[in-house]
Amino acid sequence: MADIRKIKTKKNIEMAFVTLLNERNFKSITVEEICKQAMTSRSTFYLHYLDKYDLLNQLVETQFSVFEKIVDKRIEGLISGQFEETITHFYNELVNNKQIIRALFTINEPKFNLKQKFEDTLYQHWLRYLSEKSSLKYNELIAKFGASIVFDTLNWTFENGIDDETLLFVENIRKKILEMSTSLKEIHDEP
């Protein structure tokens, strides 16, 4: 029974922190305010976290770990042509945490920049995919475009929900980018 209470308390502290992040910036939030919002004591807070930076770090690492697992499972479909179906699955797997993710995206601290970690992960996967297909000098640029499309679409769906027309539009952009990379390879390979 104690484990359930610990889990609930930790979840309350995390959600209180997220609520405060949606109201103002991270640096202005105090442990006392987090505890007040979570309706818990400071001593209880410190049983779970060293300080607010530890709380932030644990939230960022948890969300990043979940994201990496989803990307590993879905990246091939995002790049290779099952974009609409894959982004729908991608979104559905992350939607339960969208409130936390969106709040963490507002933090620009280098060590805790979840948004940058998401973008870097997508970029690395795109670059790996493109490198397996060709050895163009433009692979890094194409990977940046591709990662940006996936990330921005995901971010947009958090705000607006999934819209088939938008997904089709984005899918057409993804196809054009891959077509252009293929045509660049053909131009590059010509004698």
From TrEMBL:
List the stretches of this chain annotated as a DNA-binding region.
Answer: 30-49
Kindly state which keywords UniProt assigns to this record, in alphabetical order.
Answer: DNA-binding
Query: GO molecular function terms here?
Result: DNA binding
**Translocase: present as a keyword of the record?**
no
Q: Which InterPro entries match?
A: Homeodomain-like_sf, HTH-type_Tx_Regulator, HTH_TetR
Q: Which PROSITE patterns did the record assign?
A: HTH_TETR_2
Source species, domain of life: Bacteria
Domain annotation HTH tetR-type: ranges: 7-67
Q: What is this protein called?
A: Transcriptional regulator
* Species of the source: Leuconostoc mesenteroides subsp. mesenteroides (strain ATCC 8293 / DSM 20343 / BCRC 11652 / CCM 1803 / JCM 6124 / NCDO 523 / NBRC 100496 / NCIMB 8023 / NCTC 12954 / NRRL B-1118 / 37Y)
